[in-house]
Specification:
Length: 380
Amino acid sequence: MAGKNFTFICGADDFLVGRVGRERHGKLVEEIPDEFSREVISGFANNVGEVEAAVNRFRESVQTVSMFGGRRLVWLKDVNFLADTVTGRAESTLAAVADLQAILAAVNPEEVAVLVTAAPVDRRRSFPKWCEKQAEFQLVGGDGESGAEALAGVVLAEARSLGVTMGPGALELLLAKVGANARLLLEEVRKLATYVGDGAGGGGAGAARIEEAHVAELTPNVAEGDFFEAAEAFFKGDLPWTLEALHRHFFAGGDARPILAALQNRNRILLQVRALVDAGEARLGPRGLDGLPKAAATHGPRFVGATEKSSFNLFTQNAWYVGKLATESRLPSLRRLIDNQQEFIVAFEEIIRRPHEQEEVLRDLAVRCLSTEAPAGAPR
């Protein structure tokens, strides 16, 4: 970019920033093919001393003249001292960052190409704001909710490179199940691409497609931790499937507590959904739970101390994911959900009293809940 001394790439996710940084570095390498004229310096620092050392190494590298003449390439990568951390707030770090700014301001792009990649970055500070004006600046992932859009873009790009497409609902479900773990998202895409068959890897017309059912079956629910088979079966009102899932869980040496946690987490979410739907403040639509942002503006401030993603706070959940849960569960009645919660408490007390009969306790729970009054509209 004309008139810019250096390239600055930053974002909240170090993996995504590193990925974009490697692509940019690869293009610069094509311009500067002499490997003796290229240098990579780590900007990762655990304390103030390491911050100062990294900045000093960077200064020396930028000011070094190429052995054989010509342009040089310096990459200051994995910078982590621009974040709102103890190290990032230290006076000595701020002084080192001021030195870094002075070094970058004096760079002659005709003599040395400079690339800086940093994550995370506190963009309220003066240095990132200065970089936005002075550098070839790229913010990977954007701000706020746009981070999810960046992850979606990464998934779709990876799918295209593998010669597969994403069917309706597949991308949304994958993001809901895996969350903001970029590394795991890419691994899951590769796994799913391999599974869907001969279209993977070929690209072009006729590429295989990753369907929502593939994601539901093959991708673990890392983000929520409640995609246990027994919970799925329970909230679909399918007693035989629930009992089979419980048997498989305990046959493999599983414990009752994660099953109960899964049931309670799902039930908490559905209780909140049912309350909003009954009050007319939200409705279930094809894109999930419609009206959730408006309801969040009204009721969100009351969820004090539950701002992180949690089943205790519906407004921290993905709206599409919540709508999917409610639709698949056919949204039980409020009475049924309250009864479920009471039954979970009874089961927990029974497990404490009968620790060697955990499977029997949960089987009894399932029979009581699903034989007497299944969720409205659920198959029996």
